[in-house]
Structures are given as structure tokens and as C-alpha cells.
Amino acid sequence: MATLLYRLGRLAFRRRRIVLAVWALVSAAVVAGLGVVGEDTDDTFTIPGSESQQALDTLGRVYPAAGGTSAQIVFTAPEGEKATARKFQAGIAATLKEAADAPQVTAVLSPEQTRAVSKDGRSALAQVQYSVSNAELADGSLDALEDTIAPAEKAGLTVSVGGQAYNSTGVDISAKEVVGVVIALIILVITFGSLLAAGMPVLTAVVGVVIGAGGLLLVSHLTAISSTALTLTVMLGLAVGIDYTLFILSRHRDQLKAGMATDESAARAIGTSGSAVAFAALTVIIAMVGLSVVGIPFLTAMGLAGAGGVAIAALVALTLLPALLGFAGDRLRPRPKKKPAPGGRTAPQQTLGARWVHTVTRIPALTVVLVTAGLLVVAWPARDLRLALPDNGSAAQGTTQRETYDTISEEFGPGLNGPLLILMNTDDAKASSAAQLTAELNTVRKELAATKGVALASAAQRLDPEYALLTVVPTTGSGDEATKDLVKALRDKESPIRSRTGISLQVTGQTAVNVDVSQKLSDSLLTFAIVVVGLCLLILLIVFRSLVVPVKATVGFLLSVAASFGAVVAVFQWGWAADLIDVARTGPVVSFLPIILMAVLFGLAMDYEVFVVSSIHEEYAHGGDARRAVLTGSPLAFRVVTAAALIMVAVFAGFVTMQDAIVKPIAFALAFGVLVDAFLIRMTFVPAVLMWVGRAGWWLPRGLRKILPNVDIEGRDLPKPPAQPSGTPATASERD
Predict the structure, then answer these.
(1) For the chain, is the Cβ count within 10 Å smaller at the N or the C terminus?
(2) 0.90 surpassed by pTM
């Protein structure tokens, strides 16, 4: 691999104008394409083949009004008055009339029809039905609905609009989220001491994000892509795009400092650090593509989108960066304060990194125990991890959907925010007459109403000769464990009811779909974890040809993941420091956070593992003393890994500011996970373990040595750099 990338780097350096033109044309084509066709994201969560989705598809076919999304209008009278008072009726009627004429609305049910009036009469609820799903709502449809509330407000009522139609309104990236890039630039300036060098990682990352995210938006016209997938692609693209360039550029400047020619240094940096980047990117891509094994379309799309963003970031770093190095030439060469030692890089003995490594490896067993125990304590809250998909109760305070959700929960009970639909197939009913069938349906309704956790079961509505529909309102909210238990209990009643009456039941509605999605994700988590851990062991076994290195890396990865889960539970469920990051509501964590976190953190952890361990292994290969290699090799990676981790944390932390119940906890978990993995695992736990085991850390059974392929990511097979006359390093222009 190193030799191939070495040649690629040299070619890109020498043909830099062509390389730059190609990337500029690709970027321009993507931007132009977006200008012509725009975007078409879809934030619908579905599981094709599940009971809830099958029933929704049937509803959409036989009764389109019930198969589409819906909105709610809540009318609240002033304190001490009733919304049903005569003086408010004209305003309510005018609002409902305008709502019926709003775009894509097929039906409007008044408070009298829904019978949804609070016990004190102060609040009343109207239902607005659409014939299309959330994803198919046209731009401006919800805005038009919100404009209809003016007559009721003029009458003196407080009016809010919310409901299922507002559940997925998309994720918008603002300037606040990009503040992480500014922080990254500051870190790069401090790291390199050069504005030119600091600007390169940001430039390449932006190019990668423009192409990756823009291409994803173009693909959204061909397949369903969620706005969350887009946000994840931008987050990953910025983070790894900056880090990959940082790793390669740091190596290039070290070699320039040692007197190497610019073209040779660029090619060698791509061959060595570029090999590590390619390997690290491959691990992220494999983990993200692995999300497809879960079998949920929106998660598959999210994984493929993230993998595509990482692949583009790596490709930019391996081709565009050496071209830019050619344009920069000798201007990137640092001015050493003292004459460098022959042979290139030497480990600094008095740096912070060197002092840190000496400290943590002084009593390595104690360091390993303390780090492990400390992270297990942080991970302890993870035992209480609860998963669900977010609803409007997770929306930002002050939004119309949050106000509607809170009012309904307070006045009507939380279950009305997430009712269940029971689709009944009467085609095989045993009733011999229409009257007998009506009686049987009523009996079924009473049986369902008597189920623990049911607040209300409406009368069955005949949709056509074959199907009937009734609504079940739970006593608890859509994300509560009790609601999940209720869905299971209702489904358990299907078999005895069908045996007795011939009527089959399917539990559906958005709440049931969310329950099915969460259950599917929970069931897939262990399998996915085994796949990721297995990949971790296999890949590191091949790269470093050692048994201890992959086992140590896997244990460290699991500790980082567990600690991240614990931090997420403490903040987003228990509410610790929740106000500091403006968490809208504490409660269950978004269902796919564990799988996303494991996939992304796995790849990022392998980034740091490769750069730290390869530095140690390089010193070990040259000197032969395993423990001394830890002391001299680890500090060589400390500065770059520290900068890379801080940049990644800054980028992810920028997205924690988003008022989105999906993105916020994922960004927090990634920021916390990277912080823990880089500093406590890779720069503390890893050197301590390798110091503790000594030479055994590089042992591999003879049988495995013969079987495993020999992968060179350290540049052992690269040709030796040509000797340069002292004090006359070749410049880029001289090499053209």
C-alpha cells in the first residue's frame, strides 16, 4: 500500500495543475447540479415488512386520509373561561374553515367531532388530516396551516399547531454549528505556527464536504435520504477531512525540517502517513457500511452517506493535498531552531508529550487499572440506557409543536400525542350479518379498552366492506416503556380475538412504527457490536502482526463506547448539566445513537490507534527494545493526535448547539467519545499496556505469520530518499 500511495503522491505533486482542475470541476458540477434540481430529503422512519408499516400501507390504499400524516390545533381559553363558550365559536369555526382550504388538507375534525375537550373545558382539540406522508408535504403547507389561526386568536383564544406532521421537519445547519471549524483553524495555527499550513486542512475538508454533502443531496432525488444523514455526512466530512490532512501535512513538515526535497517529502508523506489515513478511512467506511446489516432503510442510507463522505475526504487528502503541497513548495518548510539529527524525525525528550508518556508508563499496571476503573465508573449510568425515537416533546422550547405537545399532555394526557391505530380485517369474520359484525367490533373495542395502559378506545369506523379502524389512546407518552408494553399487549390479543371472531388486528400508527424501529435497533445492537469488534481484531491483527495490539485496541474501544453511553445517559436522561447544552427535554435517547456511535467511534479510534502504535512500532523496528520504543515513539504522535482529537471534538461540539433531538445527543456522544478515546485510551492506556507487556506486545504465532498478508503502512518498502547536498534542499520549482 505504501509504495502505491507513494507513487500516487508523487504523480499528484508533479501534475498538480491537472489535479486541482479536476477537483475544481467536480466541485463546480455538484454546486451547479444543486442549483438546478435542489434537494429532496425524506425524514420518514419506516421498516418495510413490519406489522405497523404493512398496516400503514394498507391504510394508505383503502383510506388515504388515514394513511397520511396529521396535525393538531389546540384552542385554549383565558384562565377561568371555557373554549366551548359561545363567544369563541365563531373564531374557532373560521379557523377550521380556513384550515380545510389549506394546501394538501383532506379533512378537518372540529372539537365536537373529536370529542377532545379538557375536563375544565378550557382547552379544545381539532384534528387536521393530510393525504400525504410527512416527507410528501410540500414546502409551505405547514406554514399555511399556521396562518389559519388568526381568527381564533382575534377572538381571544391562545392557539398552537402541532402533531405528527411536525415530527420530522428536517435539520438546518447554521453558522453556530460551523464555529467548530473556526476553533479547528485556531488549533491548526497553534500546531503548525503557520497560516499557510493551517489553512490547508480546512480547505481540503471544505472541498470534501461540498462534494460529499452536495452529491448526497443530488442522490436524494433517486432514493430516500434523511436530513440527519446529511448532517452526519457534514460532521464526519469536516472532522476526518481536517484530521486526515493534518496527519499527512505534519509528516511532510517534519521531513522538510530534516532537509528532504519537497517533491520527495510530499510523496513519502502520502506513502507513510497517507497509508495510515487510507487504512483509518477504510475502517470507518466498513463500520458505516455495516449499518446496512440492521435492515432499516433510513439507517442504511445514513451509513452509506457517512461512508461516502469519509471516502471523499480520504481521496481529497491523498490527491488534492499533494497537489497543494506542490504549489506551496518550500514555504511550508519550518525553520528549525537547531540542526536536526541525521535520518529525519527524533523523539523530543522535553516536550509535554514526552513527559506525559514517561509519567503514565512509570508504573504501567497502575495506569491500566486506574484508566479502566475510571471509565467503568463513567460508564455506570449506561445500565439505565433507554431508547426511543423523538417526538414533538423533544422540540425546542417556544416552538409551536412543543407548545401544542405540552398543552395536550397537560390537558388531555400524554397518550393523545401518540395514539395507536388498530386496523381490523373483517373479511374472514364469523358474523353472519352486518348487525352481528357491528356487535363483534364493539366487543373487540371493549376488550382492547380494558387492556392495561389504555386511556380510551374509540368506536370502530368502517373504511370499506373489508376493513375497520379504531383509535387507542395510551395513558403514557409515545417514548415511555409502558407504551411499548401496551403495543406488545395489544398484539398479543390478536390471536385469541381472531380465533374467536375471525377478525384480524394490526397495531399501527406513528407510535407503533417508532416502537418497531426502536425494537429492531435494540435487537440488532449485539450483532452489530460483534461485527465491529471482530473487524477491529482482524484489521489490527493484519496491520501490526501482533496479538496484544488488536486485543488492547478492542478493549480500549469498548471502554470508550461504554463511557460515552454513560455520559449520554447522565446528561440526556438524568439531566446532569443538561441546561449547559440546552437539552429541550430529558428522557429516552434516540434509538439509533448506540449503533451510530459504535460505527463512527470505531473508525475514529482506529485512526488514533494506527498513528500512535505505528510510531511505537517504527521505533521498535529500528531499535529492537520494546519498552524504549514506547518512550520514544509515543511522543512523536502526541502533538498530532492531540491536535487531531481537539479538532474533532470542536467540530462535533459545534453540532451539539443544534436544537434537534437526533443530532444533539449523537454529536455530544461523538465529542465525548473522541475526547476519552484519544487522551485516556490511545495516549495513556495504550502506552501503559505496551510498556507493561514489553516485547510480548509484538508477538505473533508462527502459523499466523505465514497466513496473514504483509501490509506496509509505515513505508518500510519505500525507496530511500535521495541524498541532498547540505544546505541546498530542492524546491518544488526545481523538481518540475
Answers:
(1) C
(2) no
